[in-house]
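Pinned message: reference record for 3-phosphoshikimate 1-carboxyvinyltransferase
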Amino acid sequence: MQYHITAPPKTDATIVLPASKSISNRALIIHALAGGTDIPQNLSDCDDTEVIVRALQEMDKRDATATNGEAQDALNIDIKAAGTAMRFLTAYLSCRPGEYVLTGTKRMKQRPIKALVDALRYMGAHIEYLEEEGFPPLRISGRPLEGGQLTMAGSVSSQFISALLMIGTVLKQGLELKMTGVIASRPYIDLTLWMMKEFGAVADWTDIDTITVQPQPYCHREYLIENDWTAASYWYEIMALSSDPEAEIRLSGLMDGSKQGDSVVRHIFSLLGVKTIFDKRTDGQPTTVTLKHQSARVARLEYDLINSPDLAQTLVVCCAMMNIPFHFKGLASLKIKETDRIKALKTELRKLGYVVQDLNDSELLWNGERCEPTGEAIETYEDHRMALAFAPAAIVYPHLQIDNPCVVTKSYPCFWDDLRQAGFEVTEQ
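Predicted structure (C-alpha cells):
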C-alpha cells in the first residue's frame, strides 16, 4: 500500500491525541504486579499496548482453567514488533510462576536483549535463548526471585532498566540497581519511578547512579493515563512547516509538568518558531494545548537527544524541510530500534534532496548540502516513526508518497484520520 499526501493551504485543526504508550505499558505491568482489578483508564489503543493487554489476558485465562498440580505446556506469547512489550514482559514473566515462550517478528529477533536477560539471571531467573544467543525468542520459567544488588551499564535501553525497576517491589530483597557510565533516556527511568510511587512503591534515586526499590507490594488503584507528548511532536512539526501565518493547532489531553520525557518537545520547537499555550495549568490535570507561530527561530539547531531519542526523526525531517542546519547527538539507541533509524533517515532524506551525515553511529548532522531529489516514495522500514515524521514533509513536497503507511498503528493508529481531519488529502494508490 502507498499513500499520496497533499497538504492544505491553511492549518486549523483540533486533534484528540492518543493516550501515552509509555505510560499505558508501564501501568499495565504495575497493575498486573499489584493484582488489581481496575484496568487503567484511557489506555492507548496502539499495537504495542494491545499485545501486552492480550498477553496478560491469556495468562489470566490459563490460570483460571488450570488444574491444581497439573503440569502445563509453555504459554506462547507473540509480541510481534513491540519492543517495550518484549522488555517489560521478559522481566514480568521471570518472576511470575509458569512456563512461557516469548517471541516476535523477524526484526524483533534481531534486537538484542542480553543485558536484561543477564541481569535477571543474576537474580535467579531461568531464561533460555531458543534460537540465537542474546536475542529473542526466549523460554522463561517463572519463579520467585531474590533480587538484591545489581550493576548494569547505564547506556543500555532505558526499557531494560524500567523493566527491572518495576519488578523490584516483588523481589524478596527488593532491588538496588547501580548504573555505570552515561545513563541514557533518564526521563523514561524517572517516569517509571514516578508511576511506581503512584501505585504505592517505595523507590527512588539513593545516589547519583543508584536506584533502590524496597520489597513492598504495589497498591491497586484507579489510574488515568494522559495523552502522548511524542504523538504531539508530529503536530508541532506540521505547525513549524506551515506557511499559514494564522495557523493554529489544538491538542487535547496533555499535561503541563508531565513526567513524559518527550514533553521537552515544546521547548525544542520554541526554537523552531512554535509557541505553546496551555488552556489551564492545573497539576496532574489534562488540558488543551494550542500551537501558534512565533516570529523568532534559530538559524542552526544543535541538541543532545540522549534523553528523547524518539524525537530524532521528527526533528531531523523538520529541520531539513525548514532549511535549518542541525547537529543532533545522543542517538546511539537509534541503531537498535524498529530499524536502523540513522541509516533510514539518511537514505530517505536523500530522496527529497538532503545529504545528511552521521558520526560515531550516534550523531546526525546536516550543513545544508543538497542533491537532486529522486521523487521516489518514502520507505517506512516497518517503523511507525518513519511514516509519522515524514508525513508533514508534504507541506514542502506536494504529493509526497509514503510506502506501507499502516505501520503507524504501532503507536498512533488514528494518525491518517487525524491528518485528513486537519485538511490533508491522503489517498491510497
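Pinned by admin. Summary line: Residues 2-18+227-428 form a domain with the UDP-n-acetylglucosamine1-carboxyvinyl-transferase; Chain fold (CATH 3.65.10.10).
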